[in-house]
Design a protein that fits this description.
The structure holds two protein chains of two kinds. Chain A is mostly beta strands. Chain A is built from no helices and eleven strands. In chain A, strands 2, 4, 5, 6, 9, 10 and 11 form a seven-stranded mixed sheet that branches. In chain A, strands 1-3-8-7 form a four-stranded antiparallel sheet, with no helix packed on it. Chain B is mainly beta. Chain B has no helices and eleven strands. In chain B, the strands form two sheets. In chain B, strands 2, 4, 5, 9, 10 and 11 form a six-stranded mixed sheet that branches. In chain B, β6 and β7 form a beta hairpin. Classes of the chains: A mainly beta, B mainly beta. Chains A and B meet through β9 and β10 of A and β5 and β9 of B.
Chain lengths: 118, 114
């Protein structure tokens, strides 16, 4: 159990285009989903936290108008990188939190999406 | 002081040995602790979660938590070359702050040599 999928696994696009990445929890309902970005040899960087049916909470320095997050259901969240530029090229990873009881919250990561902007 | 601290390594152990990975955290109210494994170019994979003081064993992995010392560790018995990866310690941020998000250490790189 606790499988999180992401689609696409990789994408190459031209500068100025928008790219949508889907994140799905396949066998559990996710109370909260998270979006991360990771550059080569660097740590994970949290971009935003989203709860189903509400607006995402963005981390400081992350442009909400550039990185649009929609959390349509308890199993689906999408990240749209608008007007992508080469500096947006990175490894984007989503994660989903599964709640077990009142205290136990485990967070599972998707396989990631490698974005290359030409 | 960083909220979650790990030695970046690399930690090198011979195949078959016990690998010991350590992590300290700064916020005493933290209640949930996790170890993730991340292979190069891949996303993190949850390998252990621990919520109570003491030891928790799962196969070759043992997580140890000492809340009084604000210390959590991961032991890997009978280390295999396939265990070579970066191990991330993570703590859920206190509810009063940024609700529910994971705070990661910088990760420890483990190398298991055949």
């Amino acid at each position: 159990g606790a499988v999180v999928s992401q689609h696409p696994s990789w994408v190459i696009c031209k500068s100025g285009t928008s790219v949508k990445i889907e994140c799905r929890s396949l066998d559990f309902q996710a109370t909260t989903m998270f979006w991360y970005r990771q550059f080569p040899k660097q740590s994970l960087m949290l971009m935003a936290t989203s709860n189903e049916g509400s607006k995402a909470t963005y981390e400081q320095g992350v442009e909400k108008d550039k990185f649009l997050i929609n959390h349509a259901s308890l199993t689906l969240s999408t990240l749209t990188v608008t007007s992508a530029h080469p500096e947006d090229s990175s490894f984007y990873i989503c994660s989903a939190r599964r709640r077990r009881g009142s205290s136990f919250n485990e967070q599972f990561f998707g396989p990631g999406t490698r974005l290359t902007v030409l | 002081q960083k909220e979650v601290e790990q030695n970046s390594g690399p930690l090198s152990v011979p195949e078959g040995a016990i690998a010991s990975l350590n992590c300290t955290y700064s916020d005493r109210v933290s209640q949930s602790f996790f170890w993730y494994r991340q292979y190069s170019g891949k996303s993190p994979e949850l390998i252990m979660s621990i919520y109570s003081n003491g030891d928790k064993e799962d196969g070759r992995f043992t997580a140890q938590l000492n809340k009084a010392s604000q210390y959590v560790s991961l032991l890997i018995r009978d280390s295999q070359p396939s265990d070579s990866a970066t191990y991330l310690c993570a703590v859920i941020a206190p509810v009063s702050g940024n609700t529910g998000k994971l705070i990661f250490g910088q990760g420890t790189t483990l190398q298991v040599k055949p």
